Each structure stands twice: as structure tokens, then as C-alpha cells.
Amino acid sequence: MQADRLHFEDFTPGRQFPLGPKTVSAAEIIEFATEFDPQPMHLSEEAGKASILGGLSASGWHTSAMMMRMIVDSFIGRSTCQGAPGVEQMDWKKPVLAGDTIEGQGVVLEARALKSRPGIGIVRMRTELGNQRGETVCVAEQSIMFRMRENGESKA
Amino acid sequence: MRFAELMTIGTRIEAGTLEFSAEDIIRFAEKFDPQPFHLDPEAAKAFVFGGLCASGWHTCAGWMKMFLVYWATESERLRRQGVAPPKLGPSPGFRKLQWLRPVYAGDRITYFATLQASRELASRPGTWINTTLNEGINQHGDVVIRFESNVLEFA
Predict the structure, then answer these.
(1) Is the ipTM of this complex over 0.85?
(2) Residue A99 belongs to a domain with what CATH number?
């Protein structure tokens, strides 16, 4: 079972993983924003239309969280993931509007062993989502840690 | 009033403190980050974190939440003084986000923001972009999250 999981060694530069698709509802946008980002353009269609975003739109943090869910569903959920140290950059390029369908892919940029933590490697990835209009909505570069295959089984 | 007049460059403001309950951690993770160490206190013991801890994105969203609490109070204070608060808009993104330590169930994170730079957009006069360094510090004084974000401001 553990051996079937994606380990550090499986994340070779250039390897791609599909993300999504997901259709984002107005109710989800409002629910997230009410708890974490209650700004008018994330709470009502009217206020969204009056803003430069052009309609009820998801908080960038919500878009980021949805991207995370796609990453878990695509590959982290069947991997030896050990958490993530951070995100070098996140660009919210276009709004995610109510009713939009977003999808994209993650591509491995670089993979290296961690000197400080034997048996763990760090994988730098570029993850990108677009919408049904062909626009890129969100681009991120982030690092994720995975356990290596060599001592994977003994620790499982 | 411009944002840079209110929050002078280099001055750190305290936005507020958010407690991360186990229930909130699990509720967020079920929707957005269903990994064992964010979902199940028992399963989390087998991982390097050693206990149930919040999704890093939950810690980020907590910063946004507490900054807006601070901002609402600050805007109200300015209005009472007859001053129009800065008009902040959407954010184009962030840089250099580090999740430095886990946020465990029961932790109380105090969030901060420090204005680093404010510049008018050459392509859009009357619109500024403000860069802030944002941090979250737990009840032991350890920095758990740090990132630099940009926010638009309109004249």
C-alpha cells in the first residue's frame, strides 16, 4: 500500500499533474468570504459588479485554498507528503467569478534532497489554473516535502 | 487619506488574535486540505508535526480575517474624526510565503502587518500598490507565518 504511494523520487522535473476542474458557486464564494474575507466584492453580485472585479468573485485566499484541494485530490492524497514550507509566489491574475469552472495543472520544476532532514526531499512546483474563457486566473510557485522511497516502508 | 499616511513605512501594526480550535482546523481541512495531520489528532502523531495542525492556507485566511477586523475599526476611527479612510481594493497576489511552524489546535495567533512600500502605478494614475510584510506569531512568541502581499489602493 505504502509502496504504491507517490514518493519524492516520483516527482521528476517536467512531470505534470492535472488540477480540477471545479465549478465555483456563489454560495461557496459567500461562505468563505463571510468567515475570512468579508469585503463587499466577495459577498454580493451587486458590489462585485461595482468593483474592478466585475462580479461576485472569490477571495484570492479562497482560490488558493481551492487550488490546494485540487492538489490534494490530484497527487498529494496518494503521496508521502510531509507538509509544505511555503509558496514563493502567488499571482491572482483574473477574478474567479460565481459560476466559473477552473482547472489547470501542476508541473515539477525542481526536486532536491533536504540536507537537514535525511529521507525527506523538497519538490518545487508551478501550479496554474485557468477558467472556461481561456484566461489564466491563478499562478503559483510552491514547495512541497515528500518522504523518499528508500526508508519509506520502514517508517510507514 | 492615503494608506501610506496612515500606516507609515516600517511601522508594524497589530491586527488581532485568532484562536485555532480543533473544530475549525478540521472544518477548513475537510473542505480544502484533507491531509491526515489536518484532520485527525491520532493520525497526526505519525507525522513530523506530531499533532493536529491547521492547513497553511487556514493560517493565511486567518491573517486576512484579522486584518479586516483591524481595518474596520481603523476606518471607523478615521470617519469619526471626519477623515476619509484609504480606499483599499483587491490584491494581485503575494510573495515569499513561509509556513515557519505548525499552528496546533488551541494555538492563538496574533497577526501583524508592516507597510514596506507604496507606489503609484505608471499605467494607472490614481491607483497605488502597497506592499506589506505580514506575520503571525503564536502564544509562545514563535513566528508561524510570514509573507509579503500587495494590495491596490484607489484615489
Answers:
(1) yes
(2) 3.10.129.10
